[in-house]
Amino acid sequence: MQPVTTQKRKQFFPINGLFREYLETYQRSVDLPVTYEDMLKYEDAFPLLNRDGEDTLWQTLIFEAVYGRELYEGLKKIYVLLRSGGDESIMRNLYIDRVDFCTFGNTKPMRVRVVNQHNDNHDYFYVKKADASRVYGLELEELLSPNHINFLVYEDTLIEEHIIGVPGDDFIRDYMPRPDLHEVRLAKEFIKFNERCFVRLLGDMRAYNYVVEVTPDFEENQYRVRAIDFDQQCYEGRRTLYLPQFFKNNLPVVNLCTELINVETSLQYQREERALIKRRLNFALERVQQLRECMCADKISSTEKTHQLRKELATMHDDFRFMLCQSMGEITFLNITITLGLKGKAAYFPEGD
Q1: pTM above 0.85, yes or no
Q2: How far apart are the first and last CA of the chain?
Q3: pLDDT tens track for 50-103
Q4: Of the four listed, 9, 107, 191, 293, which is most buried by Cβ atoms within 10 Å?
Q5: Alpha carbon distance 303, 237 (integer Å)
Q6: d(C-alpha 331, C-alpha 350), whole Å
Q7: Are the C-beta atoms of 157 and 130 separated by less than 8 Å?
Q8: Domain of life of the organism in this record (predicted)?
Q9: 46 has which bridge partners?
Q10: Mean pLDDT across the chain, nearest whole number?
Q11: Average pLDDT for residues 323-327, to the nearest whole number?
């Protein structure tokens, strides 16, 4: 197996009218006092260093005093909308500690640090440019994964909550060598994560694009792997880009899976995860059907990548219906249908010309 890499920065796709109606229906779309463009009006920036004095590749932004006060007040309102549905009575306890800017990500995100002045407890949220494929990825995460995720959209601005966990690359470097690591549980969870990504075609799950949640249990630790980057939701053309097992920096975990989990047990874990995804889908079937309608009619990748992916999946599944798909949304929901063995209203079959 050859490791895979993504190429170039991904193309951005705007949120169209049909998808905005969906987001409004499910209260994902709200009016916000601050937009991404507002936050680009900073005067200066300086590198943000970690505890060891190393450059984090984030820059802390400096705003003009009057503008900064107005901006920070708006950011507090956004945080309250995101976390408590807009109850502004808690705002007096909060202050914005800093705003950081990441220049290397696809969305060039802003990270806002919010602090409770009574106990110094802090939290983060992110302000990004709203890209349709990313928002579809977030919504599919909410509907089909075991994780709830909170986000808001306003015009071309996307607000995302901070997902808590140990970044995958840090976990592999710092936690895997520890003697208290429960290797079998970690291997099992990575196999399930690999399956979740492939079923809904979430790509580019290199180690720094997911986190590992560690939960102490009465008999050793439990683990959950959570995606934190949804830029590559059904965007790339290569099938292997939707399988975390093929990324080079995941190799230590993949080797662990190979050493500890035999093929029969691995297939068992895959079946278990598919059954859970199917149960979640059936529970939110009406909402999933509305999302499918939006996604199948939308353009969220290039024609070249769409044709490449449908061909590779048609070969893998030995199913010609992929060749009838005209959009990444159609490919995604046909892949969900086939891998989960869906029937009836939950199933999706593309129509030919």
Answers
A1: yes
A2: 37
A3: 888 888 889 999 999 999 999 999 999 999 999 888 777 778 889 999 999 998
A4: 191
A5: 9
A6: 9
A7: yes
A8: Bacteria
A9: 60
A10: 93
A11: 97
